[in-house]
Amino acid sequence: MLRPKDFIYDDYYGYYLCPENQVLTYRTTNRKNYRGYQSQPEDCQNCPLLSQCTTSQAFQKVVTRHVWKADLEICEDIRHHQGVIDRYRKRKETTERLFGTAKEYHNLRHTRERGKSKMEAKVGLTLACLNLKKTRKMAGRIAFLVCLKFLKLSSFDHKISKYRKRQTSEIGFVFNLTSPR
């Protein structure tokens, strides 16, 4: 059987073309926001692909397309651009990791609270805890590097300056779970 992807949609004229170059015109939109495109029975009656195309007794092929399909195709194209791919990789390393930690170790998988305000308070406290953990880790690293500097180990001087530059440019605190735009 031929699938809807075997039919070509012409966005300008708003119709589908079958593999035999016959037009499927718009007929109706159903309650679930799908547009129905139907072929003409006289075009399909003598078609060589009729047995592969449809089993309809009326010799008609019906193809449905969601009203937001064009927007979904645009989003799919945007998703494959290199800048967006890099942004998703960065998100996977930062935001998703924190969300997984919060879910697994800070009881965000299940909750007893009811209501948006109570959940916002719980998530806010959880994110504050995660930020405190991150601050503690950074303070521990900085204290270690300061001790090395105090001992006058000159080979570590350049590492300390690199670390300070990186820490001041990317603190990386999380204030909510939405991705930055």
From TrEMBL:
Pfam families associated with the record: DDE_Tnp_1_6
Domain Transposase DDE: residue ranges: 17-134
InterPro entries: Tnp_DDE_dom
Protein name: ISSag8, transposase
Organism expressing this protein natively: Streptococcus gallolyticus
